[in-house]
Amino acid sequence: MRKIVMMAPLALAACSGGHSDAVSGSGPDMPQLVLQPILYPDMTQNKLYGPACNFVPSNGGMGAVFLARPDQGVIKIDDHVVAIPLASDAASLPQGAHTHYAGPLYAATLVAAPNARQKMMGAITVFTGHLTITDAKGQKVYDAMGDTQCRPT
To answer: Would you state the pLDDT for residue 6?
Structure first.
């Protein structure tokens, strides 16, 4: 059984141009972290069950590239699932998730977009989110708006 990789190599790729989902202030020269969708096999192999908020970037298809969980944030880089520990200064999101995670390689912040309204769809909370990821030097390597769904299980 695979274990979550706590320290994966930095997977940076230079941006060839601006992205329509990028938040203003992230120019074409910003190094871009290439996040892969976290798929069902990743979730089962790494036991990523339970409550979480899933972030899907606006132009990123249907797969979540970030999971905000009660105890960790999760991303996938170079086919490795990477856990980012919960930061002590994190505020609460729905379903036990949090806004801030920080580890030795990456820090991630997921917040509701300005003026975003939360909608309830049964037990799932949905809102437009803003995900920012910085590297160990504090440099922004990912910055996107997208759909966030917080689910209880």
So the answer is: 38
